[in-house]
Amino acid sequence: MPTFSNDTPGDEVVKAYADRVPGKTILITGPSESGVGAQTAIFIAVAKPALIILAGRTLSKIQPVIDQISKESPGVPTKFVELDLASNASVRKAAAEVKTLTNKLDILINNAGIMALPNFEESKDGIELQFASNHIGHFLLTNLLMDEIIAAGPDSRIINVSSLGYMSGGVHFDDPNFDGGKDYNAWYAYAQSKTANILFTHALADKLKAKGVYSFTLNPGLIFESKLMANITKEMFAEGHRIATAALNGAPMPNIAPKSLAAGASTTLYGALDPDLKDHSGAFLNHGAIFETPLLPHAVGVENQDKLWALSEKLVGEKFVY
After folding, report:
1. Whole-angstrom distance, CA of residue 48 vs CA of residue 13
2. 84 membership: H or E segment, kind and range
3. Helix, strand, or coil here: 49?
4. Would residue 184 show up in a list of annotated catalytic residues for this protein?
5. CA quadruple 67, 162, 228, 57: dihedral positive or negative?
6. Residues paired with residue 25 on neighbouring β-strands, in sequence order
7. Its pTM surpasses 0.90
8. Residue 21: exposed, middle, or buried by beta-carbon count in 10 A (0-12, 13-18, 19+)?
9. Which of 184, 188, 214, 270 is catalytic?
């Protein structure tokens, strides 16, 4: 069985599982140039999937990724779908377009995200922007594409990119908007969205295990090359570290050594491709392996999963039952 480390580049992960990619249809959200999603797409394209769908807000930011795939992996079909995860209407439109491109979806990688916005902002639907973009939009997209995901099974996969930033706090089930922004803190809001990624993954694993669909969540790592951290000042980063340390309440801080952009894609690809993970649906992954450290209480438990699912259904205005 292949083993990976903090520094393993994503192309090595793809090489290890290259025989599991041909014939698969893969959708990646947030694949803008110089991001983890883009690198994930570029690496997995080398193994010749049947179709790669790149979903994001702006074609001009994704076209360079499409061009690089075309150059390095000629013959691999790549389609762009416009998607604004901060708009439920846009998510619904994107899902409808995906259904015109394929009747099966083997791998859904919910990669898009925003991080630690310094000021409180709301989505088009009145939802705190990090919670909307990082979780609610993906919750709706995933559920709208569930027929296609199930049709691709067994062993179709849903990958939710989370972060060790989840440690700083849980989901404010009764007030996800922080009292209209009055109680807003960039890192608590980011943690809320990343905890939601984890609880959503656990809920999917439970709901879909009988259908042969597996779900995983992960920490991609500390990647300074990524544009995700473009707005993070040294002072903001130090504040985030203080908040996370306090939340650990004396427990040791997990390894957060920086890694390259190429290595930042490796854990996503591991989750998408490793055949042995099917016995561990719902697992949190880190550094190309199952994260053995127990998750903090606010990120586990059926009660928390159910609360998040109910809140998410309320915010998208639709119920989903499997």
Report:
1. 14
2. none
3. coil
4. yes
5. positive
6. 51
7. yes
8. buried
9. 184
